[in-house]
Specification:
Layout lengths: L13 E6 L20 H22 L3 E3 L6 H10 E5 L2 E4 L5 E14 L2 E11 L2 H13 L11 E3 L3 H12 L6 E4 L18 H5 L8 E3 L6 H4 L9 E3 L16 E6 L4 H9 L3 E6 L10 E3 L14 E4 L21 H11 L15 E3 L3 H9 L7 H14 L2 H6 L2 H7 L5 H11 L3 E3 L11 E3 L9 E4 L4 H10 L1
Amino acid sequence: MDSLKIDFTLGTSMEINVDLHAHSGYAGGTMSLAKSPENVEKNALSVKKRFEKAEELMKLKGVHLFGTGDCQFLEWQNFLEKELTESEDGIYYYNNNEIQYLLQTELIFTAKKGKRSKQVHTIFLLPNHTISSEMRDLFDKWNVNHEKMARPFLVCETVETVSERVNAILDLDPYIEAIPAHVMTPQGVFGSSVRINSLKEFFGDSAERIHAVETGLSADPYILGLIPELDNKTLLSNSDAHSPALNRMAREFTTLKINRINYKAIIEAIRSNKVVRTFEFPPQEGRYFLTGHRPSRKKPGLHEDDEYCMFSPKYVPKGDICPICNKELTIGVLQRVFEISRAQGSERELGDFVSSSPFVQMVPLIEVILAGLNISTVSSKRANKIYREVVAIFGSEANLWSTTAQKAEEQLDGVKPEIKEAIVEIKKGNFTFKPLGYDGTYGSLTIGETSDFMDINLINHTSKKGAIDQFLSET
Ligand SMILES: [Zn+2]
Ligand SMILES: [Zn+2]
């Protein structure tokens, strides 16, 4: 079955899967191609190879439209201009017309908040390459280092400067879209690194021009439903993939309803919240879900190999102080989201506000297969072979996650029993992470059981048990 061809009959609306936040090989992470400019030919070849590998995986994923990532980075822009063809206004394709792209980048704005500097990652969608170049001209005016950094820093002293610069970029074209990225992570607007409680507190007046935010791996519409300010914003989900790997690309994505495929139609669908559903990575797996301290923290003597603590919001010790090392805990997404909710005057509890964005919870299929086989290497040939077998049944991974548990079970009849069981359990929601994600550590998938993330109160510190009991009775 060919899930990727989008057939538009005039006047009928269509559903399209989009992943609007990705990165090129220039953005750092797994491969920083920009580091060896002397090797121009070799670099060009590896850029192309990487791109082709990514596109091959995109087809398996069943996502139709991808953000290019880093679109204003000169070397990458040159590649995109040379290799991609514009099919519709602002929509591009490579070789055949199966996967579509639009120009996208991520900028890091910084502003002083008290004594500290707050960094906020923000996605920008752009209508064409001319605008990318104009944005670079603005960067030159602002002394932004964009020549070496594909994801540049826009260092601003104040919120007013952030606002001015966001406005200046948006003023380049009425269809540029600014979308605060992964809003609950430490590098997101609501994240814990420097705590602020509204979009305006960071973006100033330009906050009024924000129509959508990205849920990120560490939150979903259920959790973001606690924040009143987001009630009338569009919630988008994207992968933020830095490498062409099955467990990274399209690990989150969004289904949009559109009437035609061109850049403006995509932006209008975002602005008028034509989200059919988002596909969400379980927030509990995200690296900053609960508040706590992991074992063996960097500074010597703080935590030994077996010492850690982890708290749901109602159990967080007073002053956010770690009962083991007496330092400030790493504040988790769940605690932050309640803090913001209260700061915005709400008394909502989880589940009180049902977001208008329905969503599907999923775990990247390759991770489910690895868990089913009890192996851990994503590149495992065996796991990848099974991945392709399962995808062949459904047409794409997106189709698997879109179908019901019952239908999936029927269709998976010929598949290895342990893999079939693992997939069906995930589809039924019968899974958890042990431990849950906290203090920079990803949660570890456990299939066949569930847990209540609102009821975690763990302190593992056998050697000073008495001291902790005393600490807790005082707080
Ligand atoms: Zn980011
Ligand atoms: Zn500690």
